[in-house]
Amino acid sequence: MQFTIVREAGAFAAMAEEWNRLLTESASHVPFLRHEYLSAWWRTLGGGEWAQGELYLVTARQEDGSLCGVAPMFFTDNREGEPALMLLGSIEISDYLDVLVRPAHLPAFLQGLFEHLASPAAPAWHVLDWYNILDASPTLPALAAAAGAAGWSYTAAPLQHCPYIPLPGDWETYLAGIDKKQRHEIRRKMRRLEEADVPFRWYFVADGASLEAEIDAFLQLMAQDAEKQAFLTEVMRSQMRAAVKAAYDAGWLQLAFLEIDGKRAAGYLNFDYANHIWVYNSGMDFALREHSPGWVLLGNLLKWANENGRRAFDFMRGNEDYKYRFGGVDRFVMRASVRR
């Protein structure tokens, strides 16, 4: 492997096609590692999460020049104020992060990465501080092995629950697999709206001409929650718009709304990527809560996902109770740290 450092945004932008091609063969094939997502994240440093940072991509190529590994990082002071190399996308708005490398190349890639990080050419880092790596990622044991070989310390700790639902491909089979009481509750709430004397529909946003207005509507629903309203600063709204547009342009946006009596009652911002549904955020009109719009829309999205061959419905970070009521299976994201 031949290693190169990419520090300029222009060079980062030029890697889009080969970056995404490598991602499809990487162990962690998730939407948050797509080039268009991370490019949008970098433009605002995560919606203002980071005051400053220096782009620091460590790339590896094979003898024929093909890209075979990327450690997508930036150099900044971490939350503890230490000079750190963080993964692009850290921390708050990118649920799953990792390196881009084929599983067979992972040990050699990390060995080469650590050799570079030990050299005078590397920035003056104190800690390799990598958040939001799924607990099943092969990067974690490989990182521990590479750190041990280099004589550096390695620690890993769970950060957050990340429940997901493996889908059987059939709505009734899915319902039969969850708790009987919850199955009844889902059916009851969906049927109650169907029997109510009020028009309703749910739909996916498909028209690019209306995308801006639909994003506005979704952000308004989000902002009805006080915690989410505080989260949606002006720069964060800009970041959210950029992420939604990037996903739409690349063909993996799933923005869904439930309308009741002509009013948007609930919305889900998901990514429909790699035969999985990734649930990114949601919002609800609290004036219409009597119709349980969040549950109804979620039920319809799960039914659609089963009927359309999606293999999993990933709620991602957060251990909210409703995720388990719908049959979520627990797993975790980790924070892995390497110190020299």
Output mean pLDDT: 97
CATH topology of the largest domain: Aminopeptidase
Rg to the nearest angstrom? 21 Å
SS content category: alpha+beta
CATH C-level class of the largest domain is Alpha Beta
Total count of strands: 14
Give the termini separation.
23 Å
**DSSP strand (E) fraction?**
25-35%
Shape: elongated
| Topology order in helix (H) and strand (E) letters | EHHHEEEEHEHEEHHEHHHEEEHEHE
Helix content: 25-40%
When the domains are counted, the total is: 2
Number of discrete helical segments: 12
CATH superfamily heading of the largest domain: Gcn5-related N-acetyltransferase (GNAT)
Poorly predicted regions are: none
Largest sheet: 8 strands, mixed
Return the CATH architecture of the largest domain: 3-Layer(aba) Sandwich
Structure overview:
The protein is α+β, with helices and mostly antiparallel strands and 340 residues long. The protein has helices spanning 9-13, 16-23, 35-48, 106-117, 139-150, 171-176, 180-195, 211-222, 226-231, 234-250, 293-307, 321-325, and strands at 2-6, 54-61, 67-77, 83-87, 100-101, 127-134, 153-161, 164-166, 200-204, 253-260, 263-273, 276-284, 312-314, 332-339. The chain folds into 2 domains: 2-160 and 334-339, Gcn5-related N-acetyltransferase (GNAT) (Aminopeptidase, 3-Layer(aba) Sandwich); 164-314, 3-Layer(aba) Sandwich (Aminopeptidase), CATH 3.40.630.30. It has 12 helices and 14 strands. Strands 1, 2, 3, 4, 5, 6, 7 and 14 form an 8-stranded mixed sheet that branches. The chain has a 6-stranded mixed sheet with strand order 8-13-12-11-10-9. Helix 3 runs antiparallel to helix 10 (234-250) and helix 8 (211-222) crosses helix 10 (234-250). The model has no long low-confidence stretch (mean pLDDT 97).
